[in-house]
Write a sequence for this structure.
């Protein structure tokens, strides 16, 4: 996909964000939980990298794993998944919300804990100066978008998670394992950008 084709495809995705947010009041304790993550594309770079993070080694869940910036919706988000994704990216990476052009919200996927996770797709028009929240993020990875557009990189594998052997998708990028929900979300992005 050329940069021109990508920009054209992104322009056709806009406008769906508000219609994709979960309806109703913020989930009460014990009800279905909702989270949001940001798929940030640095479109000013030739290889249009996707911004990923390595979670801090001391995190209680998914320590050291590669993921997209994001987290559970908070009451201040008022059930707005776009607000939540931008807030979390700001908290984790120091990415100012006003530097992200939101393109769309992809369909929600459930993680291994049953949380509905909404991927928010946005583009960055300039390279940010990262300010990492050290307890949550140990490093930023910039992976070329073309890597995620190649179907052969999505490999079905068995992995142990919480003591159980599970079926999952695994991607190997230069020795970095991108797997589970993050790999599934990136495959959904591939489908959105390369419709059949």
């Amino acid at each position: 996909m050329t940069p021109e084709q990508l920009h054209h495809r992104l322009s056709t995705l806009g406008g769906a964000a508000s219609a994709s947010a979960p309806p109703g009041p913020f989930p009460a304790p014990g009800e279905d939980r909702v989270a949001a993550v940001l798929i940030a594309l640095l479109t000013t770079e030739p290889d249009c990298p996707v911004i990923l993070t390595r979670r801090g080694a001391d995190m209680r869940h998914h320590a050291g794993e590669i993921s997209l910036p994001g987290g559970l919706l908070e009451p201040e988000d008022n059930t707005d998944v776009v607000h939540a994704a931008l807030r979390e990216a700001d908290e984790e990476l120091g990415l100012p919300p006003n530097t992200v052009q939101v393109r769309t919200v992809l369909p929600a996927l459930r993680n291994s804990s049953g949380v509905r996770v909404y991927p928010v797709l946005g583009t960055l028009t300039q390279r940010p100066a990262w300010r990492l929240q050290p307890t949550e993020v140990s490093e930023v990875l910039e992976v070329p978008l073309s890597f995620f557009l190649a179907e052969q990189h999505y490999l079905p594998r068995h992995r142990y998670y919480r003591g159980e052997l599970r079926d999952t998708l695994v991607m190997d990028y230069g020795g970095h394992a991108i797997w589970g929900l993050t790999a599934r979300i990136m495959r959904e992005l591939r489908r959105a950008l390369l419709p059949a």
